[in-house]
Amino acid sequence: MEVLKVSAQSSPKSVAGALTAILRENGFAELQAVGAGAVNQAVKAIAITRGFIAPNGIDLVTIPAFVEINIDGEERTAIKFIVEPR
Q1: Beta-strand (E) ranges in the chain?
Q2: Contacts from 6-9 at CB under 8 Å and sequence distance 24+?
Q3: CA distances from 16 to 20, 62, 76, 86 (A)
Q4: pLDDT tens for residues 42-78?
Q5: What is the CATH number of the domain that holds 22?
């Protein structure tokens, strides 16, 4: 599964476009964000994605969870968002 990594500098509209493409291809997707700014951008992207695919009759649900990731040899806690159709 492809994981979209979102940073505080990520454009929500760009992330939403990538998320929409992955959802149409795979039926589900996962986003990862570390830090409050990144989580904010990820949530905005999910909201924008809902608007992109709602005209197709698809409603999304998002399941948030914690995940431990390794960044530059340092263990960090990230938030992962599993996004899938309802």
Answers
A1: 3-6, 29-33, 60-71, 74-85
A2: 6/31, 6/32, 6/33, 6/38, 6/41, 6/42, 6/45, 7/33, 7/37, 7/38, 7/41, 8/35, 8/36, 8/37, 8/38, 8/40, 8/41, 9/37, 9/41
A3: 6, 14, 25, 18
A4: 999 999 999 999 888 889 999 999 999 998 999 999 9
A5: 3.30.110.20
State the total domains in the chain: 1
CB 49 within 8 A of CB 60: yes
What the block records as the tokens of 56 is 């197709």
Q: Which domain holds residue 50?
A: 3-85
